[in-house]
Amino acid sequence: MMKVAQMAFSQQPAQKEILLENPAFKEVPVLFRSLSPEIPSTSYATFGLYRYPAKFIPQVIAYALKTYGVSGMRIMDPFAGYGTTGIVSRIYGNPYELWDLNPLLKFFHSAAVMSPQEEEKIDLKKAVENSKPYVPDWGSLNYWHPEECLDLLSKAWGYFHQLKDQRLKNLLLIPLLKTTHYFSFNDEKRLKLSRSPMADKRIETLLEKDWKNIFYKMIWNGYLSILLKLKEYQSLNPQPVDCVIQSAVDGLAASPEKESDILITSPPYLQAQEYIRSTKMDLFWMGYSEEFIKDLGKKEIPYRDVPVVQIHSPTYDECLNGIDEAHLQKMFKRYFYGVFGILNSLQEKIRKYLLLFVGPANVRGNAIPMSQIFREHFTSLGWKHEITLVDTIVSRSMFLYKTNPATGISDNRMKTEHLIVLSRERASLLGRLKN
Question: Domain of 140?
């Protein structure tokens, strides 16, 4: 195992012994940020280049790979999102395969794993002003951006799309996305694309200033920040490893390139959906059509019809029976049919461990113990439950309400997330054939 992993092991042998060798602990409270001190924060290096919904914190993956893997083991993440699993896997010398429905995965991954780059002297203002404008295929363009800014935004994106230097495109993409959001009526404090009076006021105030100068400064400062983050990532000694990135992929129809040793993933949250909606603005400006983006949204779990999957969990049945509203029952079943449909297929291609990171959910005030449902289902398929590690959520970027504004019901946001560790060690053929 590489140097960083060895250092981390030497810092916490007692904790590892408690978690893995004491059979009395099947659920153990942990703080993953403390268990992987070699990664100073969740936004260190390239882990925090861009705000993405339900992003894996890198310390979870780091701890998992240190504890259950060795260098060279192949890693799989079918709900990769921003791509954190791959970024961490390189630090421990693990080849990997990432899937996600959102095509942004391949762009974020490319930027995050770049080698350190030197600052280039770019006359950004001149380059943008001399570029042919790019206008996205978006019927709501004028609703989301002030008319005064559209010409500059179009020329900036025209410059981006005309660039031949892929390395420079990788460096400029995220600063340009962030600046585009800032120069829009989108409420930055909400993950889903959402216009609000607060955002309208921000634009009104912005336009009273030298907003063009602010625009160029934001992109340039973002570019410099990425150069710094790439150097931080290099300090973690990432290794060149084989990787497969499948973005814009339908997990229910896809097949992995190879078998993997470890599947580690954080499936979509039951109560936090519409991930495509949160990145619609990005996708339009990056060149995707309205028809393509709508089609992606229709493929999201749980908004699509999916094949029925047998759920091997009495807790699932109990929770389903406790939901009165038909449309919520339908959503609940679709969620588990979709997620388990993907994982049931993939678990046949996993040689050693399933590591599933889930959070408890709430449907109309009914608590849904997600980790228990996942554990019951996969142990019935022959996997051995090793342990569940319960992590306390330290920070949250979403609004926190006393009551849900849509329902008036007390809003019980997740306070913990659970890493379910399942091993292939005692898996039986009979169990694996149940699905």
Answer: 124-232
Mean pLDDT taken over the chain: 88
At residue 50 the predicted structure's pLDDT band, cuts being 50, 70 and 90, is very high
Q: How many CB atoms lie within 10 A of CB 321?
A: 9
In 318-427, where do the E strands start and end?
350-358, 361-363, 366-368, 384-392, 416-423
Residue 414's pLDDT band, with cuts at 50, 70 and 90, is low
- Please count the structural domains in the chain: 2
Strand residues in 216-272 grouped as ranges (E): 243-247, 260-265
pLDDT at residue 429 tops 90 = no
Same-domain pairing of 402 and 354: yes
Q: What angle separates helix 84-91 from helix 104-112, to the nearest 10 degrees? A: 30
258 and 378 housed in the same domain: yes
User: What CATH number is associated with residue 408?
Assistant: 3.40.50.150
Alpha carbon of residue 61 to chain centroid: 12
Res. 137: pLDDT tops 50: yes
Instruction: Report if residue 329 sits inside a domain.
Output: yes
Identify residue 11 by its one-letter amino acid code: Q
CA dihedral 311, 313, 319, 325 (to 10 degrees): 10
pLDDT in tens, 296-342: 999 999 888 899 999 999 999 999 999 999 999 999 999 999 999 99
Whether omega for the bond prior to residue 302 falls within 30 degrees of 0, making it cis, is yes
Distance (Å, rounded) from C-alpha 248 to C-alpha 102? 5
Pick from 387, 373, 170, 193: which is nearest to 283 by CA?
Answer: 193
Tell whether 67 and 168 lie within a shared domain.
Answer: no
Q: What is the pTM of this model?
A: 0.88
Same domain, yes or no: 67 and 141:
no
